[in-house]
User: Fold this.
Amino acid sequence: MAANIHPPAQRRKKEPRVGIFWVLNGEPLIDSALLSDAEPYGDHLTHPRGHAAVWERFQQNGTAPREMEYEEAPRGRVMYNTKSRRFTLLADKCILDVSPACTAGAKTCCSSRR
Assistant:
């Protein structure tokens, strides 16, 4: 009988994510990608799609309002710095200053739950 070479599911390290997000009505709207699917951007790994393309998809599936352009809602992104091996949060100042939804968005982007 062959030995089980894979650790139990609960002990496997889950892959982190990068992502882009908006804050709509005080709630985060997030699209994330596994770090292994991220695209290089200088010293960073970033989400493989841009805000405009993802917003259009959200509009098509009814998640985002059709009458609103993607740059109207406060937005941000979580990238991974390959040199420092840390995540970087970029977001509109208005949500960094006042919204716990921004922090929730960043945590969700980086976690492996999405």
